[in-house]
Amino acid sequence: QVQLVESGGGLVQAGGSLRLSCAASGRPFSRYTMAWFRQAPGKEREFVVCISWIGTSTYYADSVKGRFTISRDNAKNTLYLQMNSLKPEDTAVYYCAAGGGWGPPTSRYDYWGQGTQVTVSS
User: Is 42 helix (H, G, I), strand (E, B) or coil?
Assistant: First the structure.
């Protein structure tokens, strides 16, 4: 089992920045591909980005490419998401996830956090 706890969400104006964190505990964090997903009200959960276990490979959704940056610190068992140039359409609950696969499908991730709310005002 891996337990994931997100933090860092909040209310920000359009064009602003936020940094999300996801603290992991349980099984070795470094074994897993880590990802961020988001879910807006009335919409399906949407892939944002993932990062390989060693942190050398990343895969971004087109909607966030160039604005968001994922990183991980395996020594601290922590995943990060730096979000810049935020837009109102980025408003959602953001979830971190851990799994053995790669890419967008939610089925490739076995462990999920409880989510943190990000609200971007126009």
Answer: coil
Judged by DSSP in three states, 24 sits in strand
State the pLDDT at residue 12: 98
Q: What is the pLDDT of residue 85?
A: 98
Please write down the HEC assignment for all residues of 67-110.
CEEEEEECCCCEEEEEECCCCHHHCEEEEEEEECCCCCCHHHCC
pLDDT beneath 70, residues of the chain: none
Token digits of residue 86: 């935020």
CB 55 within 8 A of CB 74: yes
- What is the reported pLDDT for 118? 98
Q: In angstroms, rounded to a whole number, what is the distance separating the alpha carbons of residues 46 and 92?
A: 10
Question: Rounded to the nearest 5°, which phi and psi values hold at 108?
Answer: -85, 0
Contact, 71 vs 83, CB < 8 A?
Answer: no
Task: Encode 37-47: b = buried (16+ Cβ within 10 Å), e = exposed.
Answer: bbeeeeeebbb
